[in-house]
Design a protein that fits this description.
ten-stranded mixed β-sheet; globular; single chain; three-stranded mixed β-sheet
Length: 252
């Protein structure tokens, strides 16, 4: 009986250790991650193609102009490098990070193009406790978008999911007449959470694998244009639909 009790206690202890929350450090130096807008190309995630009259440049000096969010998914093998459809439900945002909202904004001044991690649970970048089991590898990616797409990843991901299926209605509704919006993703990294603060790093000056995972290193991460139909194009589509309806009535 004593052996059974001891075995049960040990099993519970091991289970508790496996499910314990870990810590990560998501401070983002501009030597590790920067973003730039690319209005010469439409996003390859949504069909790609050239855009006429565009330009490439850092994301600007307005802190409110671009938003960012850290996404993760549990990948015990640690091998994940090409799952770029981050809106498909396999990646988890703020709701799955232990209730914390790991989001950032564009930096200002000479470092524009970089990202400032928001304050989370009183910690600015480092020492963030996340609902990831210690010892389990989690893949991570930082996504960024122009603020006109929305202020939360939940809302933006819904727009992108619809767009990936050819439905641009939510995008058009959100933009309310604007014709440009941007979205981009860093390279994918992975991390094993630390057992205590300040946590294992998510970003580094190279993508060399460490004992704690492979950090994200993604300078000049492109934010490509999303395929927003021009107003003239939408008008032609509307006229085409109206003509088709009239033709059907005449045939009847």
């Amino acid at each position: 009986m004593k052996k059974l009790v001891l075995t049960s206690v040990c099993a519970l202890a091991v289970s508790g250790m496996a499910l314990a929350q870990g810590y990560v450090n998501w401070a983002i130096p501009t030597s590790d991650v920067t973003f730039e807008t690319n209005s010469t190309m439409y996003s390859p995630l949504f069909g790609g193609g050239s855009a006429v009259g565009g330009a490439i440049g850092l994301t600007g000096t307005a802190a409110s102009g671009f938003d960012y969010a850290l996404l993760y998914q549990s990948t015990p093998s640690g091998v994940l490098s090409s799952d770029t459809a981050v809106w498909d439900g396999t990646w988890t945002g703020a709701a799955g990070l232990g209730g914390v909202d790991m989001t950032g904004v564009n930096t200002t001044g000479l470092s524009h193009g970089g990202v400032t991690a928001g304050t989370v649970n009183g910690a600015s970048g480092s020492g963030v406790q996340v609902n990831w089991a210690n010892g389990v590898t989690n893949s991570v990616v930082l996504v960024g978008w122009s603020a006109d797409l929305g202020t939360t990843w939940a809302g933006v991901s819904n727009i992108l999911a619809a767009l990936s299926h050819g439905n641009n209605a939510p995008l058009l509704t959100q933009l309310a007449g604007q014709t440009q919006a941007f979205f981009g993703e860093t390279t994918i990294g992975n991390v094993i959470p630390a057992a205590s603060s300040p946590g294992n790093t998510l970003f580094a000056t190279s993508s060399t694998a460490l004992a704690t995972g492979t950090p994200i290193f993604s300078l000049l991460t492109p934010m490509y244009l999303l395929p927003v139909p021009e107003p003239a194009t939408m008008a032609l589509v509307g006229l085409g639909g109206l003509s088709l309806m009239l033709f059907r009535r005449q045939r009847k």
